[in-house]
Amino acid sequence: MSGMLSVVSGVFPDLLPTMLILFFGFVLTRLNIIAAGDIKLMAAFSIAIKPEFLTFTFLVIIFIGGLIGVLYLVMKLLYGDRYIKNEGVPFGVPISVGSLLGIAASL
Questions:
Q1: How many CA atoms lie within 13 A of 101 on its CB side?
Q2: Is 0.85 surpassed by the pTM of this model?
Q3: How is the chain split into domains, by residue range?
Q4: Residue 88, Cβ neighbours under 10 Å: how many?
C-alpha cells in the first residue's frame, strides 16, 4: 500500500485527496451511512478543487445538507409521511453546490 501511496503522492499529488475520498467513501457505503453515488460525485468534483479548499467545500456540503435535514425534520413533524417518504437526506444538491463553490474558490 505504501508503494502505491508514494506513486500517487509523487506523480499525482492532487489525486491523493480523491483517492482518500474514494477509500473512506467505500467504507461509509459499506456501513450504509452514505450512498455510493454521493461518494462518486464528491470524488469527481474533488479532482477540480485545490486541496487547500477541500475543507471549505466539505463544510459547505455539511452545512447545506444539515439545513435540508432540518427542513425534512420540520416537514415530517408538521405533515407526517404525506410529503417525506424516505428516511434519508438527498445529498446530491449540497454536494453539487458546495463543490461548485470549491471549484470557484480554486480558480
A1: 15
A2: no
A3: 2-106
A4: 10
